[in-house]
Amino acid sequence: MRKNLLFGLALAIGSFAFGQDLPTNPEPGKCYVRCVTPDVYENQEVQIMVSPAYKKLKVVPATYTTVNETVLSKVAGEELAIVPAEYGTESFEVVTKEASQRLVKVPSQKSRDTETVVVREASYSLKVIPAVYENRTFEVVTQPAYQKVVIVPAVYETRDVVITTKEASQRMEVIPAEWGTETVTYKKREYGSSIKVVPASFTSDYESVEVKPAAAEWQMSKLPPADCNSSNPDDCRYWCYKGIPAQNVTIAVKRLAADASSERTPDCDPNNNGGKPCGEGTFTRTIMVKPASTRIIPIPAVTKTIKKTVMVTPPTTRVVDVPEVRKTIKRRVMVTPPTTERIEIPAVTETVKKTIITNETTRVEDIPSISKTYKKTVMTSAPAARSIPIAQKQTTLKTTKLAQDASVVATEVPAVYKTVTKEVLTKKGGLTTWKEVDCKFLTYNDLNINWNLGSATLTPAAKREIDAKLLPVLQTGVSVEIASHTDSRGTKDSNEALSQRRAQAVTNYLIAKGINASKIVSNGYGERRLLNRCADGVSCTEREHLANRRTQFRVLDQKN
Q1: Dist. CA 496–CA 505, nearest whole Å
Q2: For 470-540, where are the alpha helices, taking DSSP H only?
Q3: What is residue 308's predicted lDDT score, i.e. its pLDDT?
Q4: Does the model's pTM come out above 0.70?
Q5: pLDDT at residue number 514
Q6: Which keywords appear in this protein's UniProt record, sorted alphabetically (predicted)?
């Protein structure tokens, strides 16, 4: 129900839209059609390359020339000559007794000094309570402790010392160079190459050119919808914007599969020459196998043994401690002082004599070393080798040189084009105004064409039918629709395709007769528009099925 409502609403909107442009004051029994402004086409010429450009190749052979080539037959070398060493005499001193030291004892010194010692401390006396005294003893250092140094003398011994009277040196001896011969390979002849031309190759192909572009036009349905509520069925007509397919022309063309090329082959291949390089010659050359060199022979040094006094242990000192000297004396000490008025009693002192002794020390005295002068022979200049150059030798050989290798000269062969005329849409047509037409233009007219089962090929009888009924109508300049139908037997998709091929077969025949393709619309409806009850699943006679297998045409508009 909902689907029917939506469909009715769409029809109402479409009817209202078309109704806005309906002709005014129409007369009963008259038919009207919307005038279609035709599409305007113009012919353009398009060039199709039917044969591509390619190259033709021509071989220019290699050229050679003979030249003289100077090669080295003996390499340069050198000989060596000995320059002897030079010697001289120089003096040197050897210490036979090393420098040392000895210690001299510095004795201690005594001195006398006096020191005042309080034998009775100062006090005071009281008139009331006298002081209490007692006698005490204490020690006084009369000689402080000190140290006495005892010298331990150095220890010496005599040793044998080896001295060099003549330094080690060298003498040089020449080892002569060794010479030999070698076989030298040189390029006696150069080889070029040969060139083989491979011509261009082509493949056959086809190129499709669109000579008429795709277009479209408005078409009105023949039958109104079943649910049309208007008393005038034309109010509910379907308007379809039907597409007109493009038309193509197929042209046979050539494609360049491979352009002309060349294959270069060397005139001499080492693989075919026993594995040896091509064009090589040999000659003998004197070479230095081992260059001249020198050998160093060492000359040992000359030595002499002498006696030498060496201090093994240096002199040292030993310290001896001397204790201090003490003396015991007595003195009177106040134990309890008076507690009343005191009377000062001065202290009583006694002078004591003491001896002060300083520590013993040592003083270092240097003992100089004893040296002796000797003479020795020294090498002032080492032996050397002087190089004597040997000049190289050359010889002349004849060789064949490649002046210019083989080459290829290319010639361009231009492409070949074919001109094809195609229609190009320059101005698009469209619906404009209503126009009165003959009512028969709105109805379908049958073409008496009997198609073979499953075939879309026109028979001679079918072509005569088209020539008699349809071709004169199109020659007046009108546009027509070719409609083809099938019965319900078979699938819907196969019937649709079969009817479309049959309608297109009629269209192709008319185009071959000179009718402009823009004036023809071909539609295949399959089994969608059956004229009777013979739908899928319904048993019908062959006569009833034949009524549904039909091809028709109708005029879409009048000529302009």
Answers
A1: 14
A2: 471-474, 492-512
A3: 76
A4: no
A5: 92
A6: Cell outer membrane, Membrane, Signal
